[in-house]
Design brief:
Structural class: alpha/beta
Number of helices: 11
Shape: globular
Helix content: 40-55%
Distance between the termini: 42 Å
Strand order of the largest sheet: 1-4-3-2-5-6
Largest sheet: 6 strands, parallel
Number of strands: 10
Order of helices and strands: EHEHEHEHHHEHEHHHHEEEE
Radius of gyration: 23 Å
Length: 330
């Protein structure tokens, strides 16, 4: 399809549209993860709607010593991928279009959730992110905006901002897209050397190890619930050779440490091994958090959680996460 490149909000506002406008916000250097977001947006907007992809490298999101200058700018390739994925418009404003008069004096503050994990590692990052998201929501005027779940803390903060400040827009999270070997797609992957990339696989491997431990625990807990610990039931099970299975299920279901602690331990083991590789993985954090506020969950937690990791390979910093469900909610 023909995709129009626009650089001002006035040009975008002048477009006539009949259906819903769906917006995908990016900093460019588009890859298959972005393509998935755009295709999902196309499905939501429908044939009569409009899909707008923003391409803007936001200077407010980059702290001292971060990679603003070397962040890839590939607008021609981005325009091509966006069009092939179903975008009607690529909106690529200049810095002075988004921030007329220089850096804004009034900004969005991310609050306590924005100071944890990524916010602790990158002070001010989430204030800058929310400020530009708020600006772009006003400039593009969408009905729905889509963001990847790979940036789980970012997605949670955007949802909170939209709710707390009464933005009239629907926020949709789209699952993380991975390469065949499990590495989460990221524009920063291109910075990795071949040997660094091999070590980087420890991020997804650690998450999958935690997920596997969690799945085994939940299966055994379910088994324990099916096999009540009564004398009559134990005798019946013994008669058919299942007493050991029942005992094991109950033992695992009540074991300490278990639950979240065991999930963390399984993931940590993979990351500790990666720290001894050449080149080594330098861990920023491994966390198992409540997605409502990104605080660590306790041993008796039930409900939705996020297992998140961030690490460095040389000069490149990568993040990844997986959603998990604990206890009765599963």
């Amino acid at each position: 399809m023909t995709t129009t490149l626009l650089s001002t909000a006035g040009e975008l506002h002048a477009r006539v549209r009949a259906g819903r406008r769906a917006v995908v916000m990016t900093m460019g250097a588009l890859h298959e993860g972005h393509a998935t977001l755009i295709r999902t947006a196309r499905g939501i907007a429908g044939r009569d709607g409009e899909v707008v992809v923003t391409v803007f490298v936001n200077p407010l999101q980059f702290g001292q010593g971060e990679d603003l200058d070397r962040y890839p700018r590939t607008l021609d390739a981005d325009l091509k991928l966006a069009g092939e994925s179903g975008a009607d418009v690529v909106f690529a404003p200049a810095v002075d279009e988004v921030y007329p008069g220089g850096e804004p004096q009034v900004r969005i503050t991310a609050g306590p959730m924005g100071e944890r994990l990524e916010g602790s590692a990158r002070p001010g990052h989430f204030d800058g992110m929310l400020t530009v998201v708020a600006k772009l929501l006003h400039l593009t005027r969408p009905d729905v905006a889509l963001y990847g779940q790979k940036d789980a803390q970012q997605l949670a903060l955007i949802r909170r901002m939209v709710r707390d400040l009464n933005f009239g827009v629907e926020i949709v999270g789209v699952p993380t897209v991975r390469e065949d070997d499990g590495l989460a797609l990221s524009s920063r992957n291109r910075y990795l050397s071949p040997v660094e990339r091999r070590t980087a696989l420890a991020l997804s491997s650690a998450l999958f190890a935690g997920q596997d431990r969690h799945a085994a625990q939940e299966a055994l807990r379910a088994r324990a619930r099916e096999v009540p610990a009564t004398r009559a039931r134990a005798e019946a099970l013994s008669a058919i050779g299942e007493s050991r299975a029942a005992a094991d299920a109950h033992a695992v279901a009540t074991a300490v440490p278990g639950g979240p602690a065991a999930v963390r331990a399984a993931a940590r083991q993979v990351l500790d091994e990666a720290a001894r590789l050449d080149p080594p993985l330098s861990l920023d954090y491994l966390a198992l958090v409540d997605p409502s506020d990104f605080t660590e969950i306790g041993h008796d937690f039930t409900g939705e959680a996020v297992l998140a990791v961030a690490a460095r390979l040389g000069a490149t910093r990568l993040i990844d996460n997986l959603p998990l469900t604990f206890g009765a909610a599963s």
